[in-house]
Design brief:
Structural class: alpha+beta
Number of helices: 13
Distance between the termini: 70 Å
Largest sheet: 7 strands, mixed
Number of strands: 20
Helix content: 25-40%
Strand content: 15-25%
């Protein structure tokens, strides 16, 4: 009797003439699977929509998972109350990851939350699967069909081309990729706003960990000696695990493909010099440190849309609440526009500021909502709303705005009804 391996036949094929396109239709198409896009997709699915979630990476989670940010920021308000300002997807996420011991809460001027990126990545994937969201990963946007509405997007993958038609679209790409490809006006900063090359180190003895202020002072004094660009930074320790996420680099975030590839290599070289600094200067805790993982290049502010309203730093500082507000946060102004450091302007105990739908809706199209770090704001204002808390809230706001608009216009929905749906993220 022949062995089963000998029964396996192989055929020879060649690529068919012309291009083969896989056609998909949906109610909502979300470009970008970070926290903003994930929130938009999850909320849309829970509203009963057929959802397609697209990302250029081969895995879900965006920067939240794959750049190893390691810290949820902007979800909570400031001390002493630490009110939770964003609910929805964060309620589910915190409940599940807290239950498995994969979260740790830090209470300082505000509350941030350490997370295990492996556990979070699986949570994202399991959540998407449980809701029946159609996923397309490793997909690069190559074209958009639009007039005063976006009708379809075209994608290239290593397995063939894809075209998605949908009633509504969410651009949660981070770099305003959908808006840019659609020919909509976008904004660029006049000087570099730096990202970071994050990494996770292990084999630490965190009983000897330095205070954040002392670590920054030592880094400022020794940066030239170790060839470091940034002269401050933070190590986020996960108690009891002997690990830390290092946020101690500044790297360029170019939109040119060749420069972007080179910046990634330079970023990892910087990260290695940070590890050398820590091993030498803090041998008690970092002497045996080993890099567990390098994140994908972290990008803070690169290119964003021109919306119907540009949120200003004055509106952030004054806490202006808009009739069409969809998100809020108390996160500081955190503008990384200089190689050696960044602006850090904190707010008082009761402060919150808001993101209006008008900053998420380009005026020239009726069925596109932008969510996340590519919404419209001046550079300083954007630096205070591009963190995960308000980005998640913007994703939920985008889902409900498209649901209310239906086949009409997101510019003409009832803002009172929208606000009523988003009460937990605005008043809870």
């Amino acid at each position: 009797m022949p062995h089963p391996l000998t029964d396996l036949q192989v055929r020879t094929v060649t690529k068919p003439a012309g291009s083969i396109t896989h056609d998909i239709s949906a109610d909502v198409c979300v470009i970008g699977a970070g926290i903003a896009g994930l929130s938009a997709a999850v909320e849309s699915a829970r509203l009963g929509k057929r959802v397609v979630l697209v990302d250029a990476l081969p895995v879900l989670g965006g920067q939240m998972v794959n750049s190893l940010i390691g810290l949820f920021c902007g979800v909570f308000g400031n001390a002493p109350e630490y009110r939770q300002l964003t609910h929805g997807i964060f309620d589910d996420l915190f409940r599940d990851l807290e239950g498995t011991g994969d979260l740790h809460y830090n209470r300082k001027h505000t509350m941030t939350v350490n997370y295990d990126e492996v556990a979070l990545g699986r949570w994202v994937e399991n959540t998407v699967m449980s809701l029946g969201i159609q996923v397309i990963t490793g997909a690069v946007l190559t074209g958009v069909t639009r007039d005063d509405r976006i009708h379809a997007v075209r994608l290239a993958t290593r397995y063939g081309n894809v075209e998605i038609t949908a009633t509504g679209f969410v651009d949660a790409s981070g770099d305003a990729s959908l808006a840019w490809e659609a020919g909509l006006p976008c904004r660029l900063p006049e000087r570099e706003i730096y990202g970071s090359q994050q990494l996770i180190v292990e084999n630490l003895d965190d009983s000897h960990r330095p205070e954040p202020g002392e670590l920054s002072e030592r880094l400022a004094a020794k940066a030239d000696e170790y060839g470091l660009m940034r002269r401050d930074g933070l190590a986020f320790f996960f108690p009891g695990r002997g690990t830390a996420v290092l946020n101690m680099t500044h790297i360029e975030a170019p939109l040119d493909p060749i420069e972007a590839a080179q910046a990634q290599l330079r970023g990892k070289a910087q990260a290695d010099r940070v590890v050398a600094f820590l091993r030498t200067e803090y041998p008690e805790i970092f002497g045996k440190a080993r890099v567990r993982a390098y994140g994908f290049p972290g990008r803070r502010q690169t290119r964003w849309v021109q919306g119907a309203h540009q949120l200003t730093v004055e509106e952030i500082r004054s806490g202006t609440r808009f009739p069409d507000s969809v998100a809020r946060t108390a996160w500081p102004i955190e503008l990384h526009d200089r190689p050696e450091g960044y602006v850090w302007e904190t707010f008082g105990p009761d402060h919150v500021h808001y993101v209006p739908l008008r900053s998420m809706t380009p005026p020239d199209v009726h069925n596109l909502v932008v969510a996340g770090r590519c919404v419209d704001a001046d550079a300083a204002a954007l630096s205070s709303i591009r963190v995960m808390g308000p980005c998640g809230a913007m994703g939920a706001g985008a889902a409900h705005a498209l649901d209310l608009a239906g086949s009409g216009s997101v510019h003409e929905i009832d803002h009172a009804e929208l606000g009523g749906r988003l009460t937990a993220n605005l008043d809870g």
